Amino acid sequence: MATGKKIVPGKVPLSSGPRGFPTANTLESPQLNGVDYYDFRSSMLRARGGGVMPSKRLGRTQDPTVLVLTSLTGGSKHGYSLIKDIEQMSGVSYGPGTLYGVLARLEQEGLVEPLPSEDRRRPYRITATGARVLRERLETTAKVASIGLRRLGAMGA
């Protein structure tokens, strides 16, 4: 593990993160012999099939917090129901580890609360605070989406 910001060609500089795990301390994508990995990958995929490949970077912007809270606006749900609803709503499939990590954090923040268990399943519901936070986030996202779509239209895209 690197201790400073020494840059080695072809390597992403590392620093020590939480609990000593290495983390990238750069926002740039990895370099392969001076070529940006994502540019290289995209050019290779286009060369094989032609056309423009959808960006994988944009797919990573799906925020599990927003998806979980949005799912819970449809009523209380347990883990499996949340996973299926999120998948149907967004096409994103989260595993139990991701989902329960998000639920634990949202519960800690007071945005969701567990309900009494009817069997071995533990349902959750969104709180009033969670609904307010979600509304603010969705309104901001809708505003940005509207501006982006309007600007794309002006570009002829």
Brief descriptors of the model:
single chain, 157 residues, Arc Repressor Mutant, subunit A, two-stranded antiparallel ribbon, elongated
Description:
This protein has 157 residues and is mainly alpha-helical. The chain folds into two domains: 14-57, no CATH class; 62-155, Winged helix-like DNA-binding domain superfamily/Winged helix DNA-binding domain (Arc Repressor Mutant, subunit A, Orthogonal Bundle). 50% of the residues lie in helices and 10% in strands. The chain contains six helices and six strands, in the order E-E-E-E-H-H-H-H-H-E-E-H. The strands form three sheets. The protein has a two-stranded antiparallel sheet with strand order 1-2. A hairpin with a 2-residue loop joins strand 3 (31-32) and strand 4 (35-36). Helix 3 crosses helix 4 (79-90). The longest helix has 28 residues, at 128-155. 11% of the residues are buried.
- The CATH C-level name of the largest domain is Mainly Alpha
Order of SSEs, N→C? EEEEHHHHHEEH
Low-confidence stretches: 10-17, 19-29, 51-61
Overall spatial form? elongated
Sheet-strand content, in percent, reads 5-15%
Oligomeric status of the shown chains?
A: single chain
Radius of gyration: 21 Å
Order of strands, main sheet, comes to 1-2
CATH superfamily of the largest domain: Winged helix-like DNA-binding domain superfamily/Winged helix DNA-binding domain
What structural class do helix, strand and pairing data support? mainly alpha
